[in-house]
Amino acid sequence: MTPENFLREIRAALDAYIASDIGGRALVRRIDDLMADELPDGLSHSLLEVLNGLQDELALYVEEASRRKEHPAYFGPEELTKKVLAAKQRLE
Asked: d(Cα 36, Cα 55) in Å, to the nearest integer?
């Protein structure tokens, strides 16, 4: 996959979440799947930092409010939306 197509896939997943076409769990799974595949050559260091940071943040998403109480770093849908919007800005 080319770097451009890879970024298009990442942006499409973020846009789908914002449009409520997919839920938080599906977004986390999609980003994880994309990042687990061999990353395309040609991605800048700064872009890789943004993507790795996003993936790290998404790992702390917990949909169920009762489970979020298990750890102070866990967050839910409202915070996920903020993180997705911030990631979209960093990827522009």
From this structure: 10
Alpha helices in 1-92 (DSSP H): 3-18, 24-36, 45-58, 65-68, 77-91
Non-local (6+) Cβ contacts of 59 within 8 A are 28
Q: Against a cut of 0.85, is the pTM above it?
A: yes
How far apart are alpha carbons 7 and 41 in whole angstroms? 12
50 vs 38, 68, 72, CA distance in Å?
17, 24, 23
Cβ atoms of 10 and 34 within 8 Å: the answer is yes
In whole angstroms, what is the distance from residue 80 CA to residue 30 CA?
A: 14
Q: Give the model confidence (pLDDT) of 37-80 as tens digits.
A: 888 889 899 999 999 999 999 999 999 999 999 999 999 999 99
Tokens of 89: 């800005």
